Amino acid sequence: MSPDIQYGNVDxxxxxxxxxxxxxxxxxxxxxxxxxxxxxxxxxxxxxxxVRRNDGTYAATVxxxxxxxxxxxxxGPVPLGTRNAGVWHDHGGPDPRYDNEHFSGANGDKGxxxxxxxxxxVGTPSxxxxxxxxxxxxxxxxxxxxx
Length: 147
Known about the structure:
This protein has 147 residues and is an alpha+beta fold.
């Protein structure tokens, strides 16, 4: 049996391991690094949540549509025993009809962060990993991902 399954460190929606990270940014960055190359290649959005675990560490979940070959920016539920700490997602491949190198506005990405009072993270087609904080209204770069 996998140690992740044995110790309950598995996201029930995707059955993927929820490895612990010291920060929410670290968990989001790891999830985006794992999914963004696929997101860009298949031009599909992939999303999930960043959660705070009971031990104070952070993990990333993957939304319910992951692996089903459908575009979804739905992050899915917050697993039992954790607290919501943000949403992460990838913007798919380059699209001349959409500025997917940046967060969408109040009716999209930034609106989600405002409503949830938690940051939102995005992986872009060029490989940037960005964070929008609703508390400050600022966008910061927190890393890069291979594409």
